[in-house]
Amino acid sequence: AKELGKSRFKVFNRKMHDQALQLMELETDLRRAVDLREFEVVYQPIVELATRRVCGFEALVRWRHPEHGIIGPGDFISLAEDTGLIYAIDNLVLEEACAQVRRWQTLVGVTDGGELTVNINISGKHFGQSMLAGQISRALDDSGLSADALNIEITESALMDNPNVAEDILQQLKDLGVHICIDDFGTGYSSLSYLQRFPIDVVKVDRSFIVAVDTDQDSQAIVRTVFSLGESMGLKIVAEGVETSGQLEFLEREGCRFVQGYFFYKPMSVADVDHLLEGQRRV
Ligand code: C2E
Ligand code: CA
Ligand code: CA
Ligand code: CA
């Protein structure tokens, strides 16, 4: 029995060893990826329901790994946060997406600089850093994008982990003129008090509430409540992860104005968005 235990321990140990090696290799790769800019940004359209038009995009990062192919953010963002590489990655996405959306504004001939918008995800870890406002300001200057067209997406927990720091940083961002968007609304903090405390402009209702909204009465009640709360507070509400016509019917009936999800569009490459916008020229 003793022998068996020992060999089991060895096997277990080797597995842990392999996992640690894999993680180290991934970290080395990720560092190199930042240096070589191995990232691609894809864009998921946000649709205005009244017109069925694309009114903006969420920028979503992809890692083009030389051996493993395309890696989604779910597989590297937490490592990027642990290693501090997230600052560079978020910043890369920010710069590229601002420049890209400015290009698309020109392509469709918008007359108001805030007309075609872009949403950028900022990690909670990055959000707490004093350099953020400077980076956003530079990305706006370099791209010529109007601050009005930029929505900064953060999660509830990013705000509530350190509310005093968050308050300072949000004020800096508001001074720049960008909009603040709460991502994954309803999944994080159990209190709504932060909606009152912080200068929030947009709320994205998490996909987990949308998924059963055509059948489940509790989901319906939650989404209805968020809509009426949002309306009375003057917030813009976006429904995330809309996949079916049943979900869409409920949302339209409840007066939802903006949706994002596979029902209309998946995240798209720059070339695919170019084609899409060709059909939406304003002039
Ligand atoms: P998120 O911010 O909640 O982004 C929405 C995610 O839901 C995206 O996954 C999108 O592809 C997916 N999605 C959109 N519509 C649907 C739908 O109808 N059905 C389903 N099942 N999924 C849908 P993605 O691109 O894999 O991103 C995952 C997460 O990674 C994001 O969640 C965000 O938290 C993070 N992320 C992505 N890009 C960045 C970035 O540049 N910086 C940071 N810090 N995080 C990022
Ligand atoms: Ca997001
Ligand atoms: Ca989300
Ligand atoms: Ca999320």
UniProtKB/TrEMBL annotation:
This is Diguanylate cyclase/phosphodiesterase with PAS/PAC sensor(S). It comes from Pseudodesulfovibrio mercurii. It is found in: Cell membrane. Residues 23-281 form the EAL domain.
